[in-house]
Design a protein that fits this description.
Length: about 300
């Protein structure tokens, strides 16, 4: 399979702080690659480097065989980029913003109007097309930004939290488009929605403090935890000594707690009864399960799972 995006040992520094630390990444043509991580982990910076909007301090990269440092103008015409922030010419209507984008990419007028018509119909924003950006909802702005990113038929699509804070209908419209048109683009997207990542991504990279701490398909990432099992344990009441009990148990690899609910990681062959026996007469429910992406993510970066 051809590789559309190659990054090697990318470092990006702002002042004395490194936002990206030796990031090496490859994205195959026609694949959807998700980037997940906490706030400040370097996700948006990574997208901006790929988009040639931020120059790396060190390292090298190639976009469709074009050198990231030397061929920026050619690369930009091949990229559709949707940032987290709404960026419009506020003095122009939404239609005029889309038309401007098309002209910047040299799309012929008749072809441009046909493309815009098809997209705004599909994404249900036809009625708002002649409104100014400030006059429409956040969801409409995000849909127009998505249309603007794909309008010129880019080969690389970079999406930074494209569906964050959108209603379910907006999310479904964007996700359906990405699935249906998958072969047209090489897509890299940042998302805080773990379930969305599981639905869409062919490959997933987890960033922490500017470093890639895990990278692989969903199956490959789960394979890293194949020897573990999770017990979701609910107690009728909790005691301060419960932490000492869990810390002292050789059968418990790690655990998190929220209220009276414990999420306990054990070896795969440890029976649930061995853990529930630690809390006699207080067990309300004990449900064993295999690790999911959210569990892997939490253990990789030691935070609570992300959600929208």
């Amino acid at each position: 399979m051809a590789v559309s995006i190659t990054l090697r040992n990318i470092i990006k520094k702002y002042g004395g702080k490194s936002a990206l630390n030796n990031v090496t990444l490859g994205v195959e043509k026609g694949h959807i690659h998700a980037i997940i991580g906490t706030t400040g982990s370097g996700k948006s910076t990574l997208l901006r480097v790929i988009a040639t909007l931020s120059e790396p301090s060190l390292g090298s990269g190639y976009i469709n065989g074009l050198n990231l440092g030397a061929r920026q103008n050619q690369i930009r015409h091949q990229i559709g980029y949707m940032s987290q922030d709404s960026r419009f010419e506020e003095s122009l209507t939404l239609m005029e913003n889309l038309t401007l984008q098309g002209k910047l990419h040299g799309i012929a007028q008749s072809d441009l109007l046909n493309r815009i018509s098809g997209f705004v119909t599909r994404f249900e924003v036809l009625d708002e097309l002649h409104s100014f950006p400030r006059e429409v909802s956040f969801g409409t702005r995000r849909k127009i930004e998505f249309i603007r990113a794909v309008l010129h038929n880019p080969t690389i699509l970079l999406l930074d939290e494209p569906t964050a804070s959108l209603d379910q209908n907006c999310k479904e419209l964007m996700e359906l488009f990405l699935r249906e048109q998958k072969s047209r683009f090489t897509t890299v997207f940042v998302s805080s929605n773990i379930e969305q990542v599981e639905r869409l991504a062919d490959r997933i990279s987890i960033l922490d403090d500017g470093r890639v701490v895990a990278d692989g398909t969903l199956k490959e990432l789960k394979e890293t935890d194949r020897e573990n099992r999770i017990l979701d344990l609910t107690l009728s009441e909790t005691h301060e000594r419960d932490f000492n009990i869990l810390d002292a148990s050789p059968q418990v690899n790690s655990y998190t707690v929220q209220g009276n609910r414990y999420e306990i990681v054990t070896e795969a062959d440890i029976p649930s009864e061995s853990i529930t026996a630690l809390f006699p007469e207080r067990v309300v429910e004990a449900v064993p399960r295999l690790p999911a992406l959210a569990d892997i993510f939490k253990r990789m970066i030691k935070v609570e799972a992300l959600h929208e």
